[in-house]
Amino acid sequence: MLTAIRKFRSSTEHLTALHPEFLLLCLLAKSYKTGHSILEEDIFEVDQPNDLFLYCYYGGMICIGQKHFQKALELLHNVVTAPMFAVNAIAVEAYKKYILVSLILHGQFSTSLPKYSSSAAQRNLRSLCQLYFDMENSYSNGKFGDLETYVQSNKEREHDNNLGLVKQDIANTVQLSSVWEAEMHVLQMLSTRRMGWSDS
């Protein structure tokens, strides 16, 4: 498919409908390095706006898979701030990951969108991602017990496929050495909860 992309695009700056399809295949195959190869090229020509949404969203996920969080943040930011008449599902999912990656990278998250964001995004994204704003409040206030409780009680992230990013956030917050250690920390909390024990 990479050969087809190179054949059908008019230049390296041209985004085709094949670009997001290629990135999705790379995600499904967990071949992040291969997917990253087309993310290094600047895009200035787009045929369909939806292709750009998907390209940046899948590209952000590719970068998360490689722990290139700064590039992931840039791509997800492009989705969230892109012109849109109504908020779409891609923008909502991108915004959730944008919040989590911001916490991993900077330890904080700006709750306001840039002025050049669409009015639809500014009006609706926060309410559609409220659970993630609540988590950010626990994170930024240093209430690690609240953050742990929040992760346990909000299983939505497992369905969002954002649990790995949440574990990375916990690892950074409680200064654990790895995502694996954070996962063990969460499992211990769940085990303690099942046995009816309390930290208090």
Entry summary:
The chain is an all-alpha fold and 200 residues long. It has helices spanning 2-8, 18-28, 32-36, 49-65, 69-81, 89-106, 119-128, 130-140, 144-153, 156-160, 163-173, 179-194; strands at 14-15, 45-46.
Secondary structure layout:
Elements: H1 2-8, E1 14-15, H2 18-28, H3 32-36, E2 45-46, H4 49-65, H5 69-81, H6 89-106, H7 119-128, H8 130-140, H9 144-153, H10 156-160, H11 163-173, H12 179-194
Parallel strand pairs: 1-2
Domain COP9 signalosome complex subunit 3 N-terminal helical repeats: 2-119
Organism: Gossypium tomentosum
GO biological process, one term: ubiquitin-dependent protein catabolic process
Features:
single chain; 200 residues; mainly alpha; two-stranded parallel ribbon; 2 strands; 67% helix; 2% strand; disordered C terminus; COP9 signalosome complex subunit 3 N-terminal helical repeats domain-containing protein; COP9_N; cytoplasm; CSN3
Could you state the order of secondary-structure elements as H and E?
A: HEHHEHHHHHHHHH
How many helices? The count is 12
Mean pLDDT across all amino acids:
76
Strand order of the largest sheet: 1-2
Tally the beta strands: 2
Alpha-carbon distance between the termini? 56 Å
**Biggest sheet character:** 2 strands, parallel
Percent of residues in β-strands: under 5%
> Nearest-angstrom radius of gyration?
18 Å
Keywords: Cytoplasm
Pfam families: COP9_hel_rpt
Protein name: COP9 signalosome complex subunit 3 N-terminal helical repeats domain-containing protein
